[in-house]
Amino acid sequence: MVQILLPVRAKCIPNALGQLSPPPAIKLKLKKKILIHDIAKHLDVSIATVSLVLNGKAKEKRISDSLAEKVLKYVEEVGYKPNQLAKSLRTGKTHVIGLVVEDIANPFFATVAALIEKKLLARGYRIIYCSTNGDTAKTRDLLTMFQERHVDGYILALPDGVESDVRTLVRSGKPLILFDRELAGVLANAVVVDGEKGMYEATQHLLEQGFTSVAMVTLQAGQAQMQARLQGYSQAMQEWQLPEMVLELEFQQEREQIIHQMQAFCQANPTCNALLFATNYLGVYGLEAVNGLGRRIPEDLAIVSFDDNDLFRLYSPSITVVAQPLEAMAESIISTLLSALEGSQETGRITQLQLAPQLIVRESSIRVPQKARPRASRTKT
Amino acid sequence: MVQILLPVRAKCIPNALGQLSPPPAIKLKLKKKILIHDIAKHLDVSIATVSLVLNGKAKEKRISDSLAEKVLKYVEEVGYKPNQLAKSLRTGKTHVIGLVVEDIANPFFATVAALIEKKLLARGYRIIYCSTNGDTAKTRDLLTMFQERHVDGYILALPDGVESDVRTLVRSGKPLILFDRELAGVLANAVVVDGEKGMYEATQHLLEQGFTSVAMVTLQAGQAQMQARLQGYSQAMQEWQLPEMVLELEFQQEREQIIHQMQAFCQANPTCNALLFATNYLGVYGLEAVNGLGRRIPEDLAIVSFDDNDLFRLYSPSITVVAQPLEAMAESIISTLLSALEGSQETGRITQLQLAPQLIVRESSIRVPQKARPRASRTKT
DNA sequence: CAAATATGCTAAAATGTTTAAGCAAATTTT
DNA sequence: AAAATTTGCTTAAACATTTTAGCATATTTG
To answer: I need a surface site. Which of A272, A285, B321, B372 has the fewest CB within 10 A?
Structure first.
């Protein structure tokens, strides 16, 4: 999807002040940044006093109320803001959280990131976020970068292959929480969704609707959560004693390739009358693939995808999904993180949470051959 | 859309080492962080020497090749990484860029952010990103936070109301670039899309298709780019001497409210047979609204939205859009920023770029009353 | 009234770098 | 052979804070 640069108007303004400025050395009155030293000098007190007052240790360190007030007043007046770099250097705290996801443009990660950001901001934390794009080397780079920047904590959804790096990170003692996916052999805080249960229920639902030839489309990745989703499908199929049909796609392929493989799979398995997609974007591509083949949903082919989004909700027919509890994930991640950050240093305690996804039945998986009403039917909680 | 917390499995592991650890004081062999001082001591040279070698100033400062090599080798061996906080404090550079958008969960911003991140990362820069949610006070907070964190540059898509803050920021001399929207009266680098042209062409297209009663759905915001989009619509309508119909929605409303107002608008204007949406998410909500009313697209109502996304591309019927050149935007933003960051300090030069959007005609705006083929027809460039 | 304690503040070390200035020794130039 | 320059490195200041330890003075206690 390469877009083309088409500048319609392009101004280049040589100098904001026009062309007649006589000497090139214009003294920009760059208001000299005010320091704690300046505050102290002006009030004729020591730097320490100002610092203590500003950090709320006036009482504790027996600074008189009158002086403390005077300091605060003057600080407010001149709008002094402590240099966070110096502060961090001294205290070892940056109040920055590192967030690593696979791809921030993916609605699932974007939404969770937005929720987390909102809640952490209120607690005085900032986040630095980065995408791994599933690349192990890049992930490793990002993790060391976060260490270098001295983030106070980590929120991570990582590709597999970086287990030992994460183990080292855990050992460093900084609060760390895995989400969306755990890492094999890494004992760390984690918040994940029970994909097995979700896919089991989705498969059951399809089978109960009478779709007997259900195939699963997933990724080859060794990631634990992917295997769980597949497992849920397998389980249900076995219970019904039906043969499993799985399309395992290679990771990090181009959109066109994926669609092509899906179409090939459908043509190679003409009896297949229902598709389960293991992720958000596989589902999106799947719709394109099915459209391209001219198959009708759900008459010719029923569809269920893991992970909800706008497209699935509004598509016609609307798409049945296994929705992840985004708010609850964000909430759990943050509370786990905060208790690790602000709690005492009992570093040995770890928390692992597995949340239940929710099957939202829509039109794409309903057997009735009669045209369904255009309004989506949605499960209530 | 409140999701409910349903923990299925919740482990709480008291201690990673089990329950029989005799004294509670386990000496975690926390490998003492290695400092430049340690390197110097071990090699029996001064700290300065090590620092100079590490910063590539060995030649310039006449450190002998043999010594330089020895330093590099040992640094590599012990895996020493300079403390970025100390470095930043000393040099005044953080190599961090602040990115502020309205909402990172919006696919437009998420995609641009992802592109920017990717390209800046390769140049050794990191980004801190935050969402304003259109809130002026929060935006102001974010901007001061970025200043406090000493970011090296700013990439901003801001709500109106923070003009003076941005002016101050510009005056501070840090590289700064506005995107998506300019700010009234703020002379700064900017990369925007020509919404007027885009909407003009979209309106023309609808009129040429024979939809004579075209309405525009937009936001009340005073933002320049919104007014431009409206202007493009007005222009076209005037040329055809047709009456304008505009629904101006208040900013920051709930989804349900917006949908409700759209539906009310449609019912109040039964003759209206085409809708233009000024943004991405208005378009999405618009589809829900139209669905809810049971109107068929495009038979009863043609639809065009500003800003493309998965939903519009895959929706059936596929939705005609005015697509923004995301790659080109990211590219322009970065090259402008980098030249400001790495170029000399000629701070007076500003660059303003306006890129052309692209009308992608799909099914939702084609007059033909016969059922269109399911495959989307797409303009080629 | 001496000793002990409380009060109100400050000096200075510490955080981990970069970099300007400088200093001997070696080499080259007059 | 003295003067000048080059070589190869080091000293120490600077960056902007926080925080421990401590110092007078004032108050309370025995």
So the answer is: B372
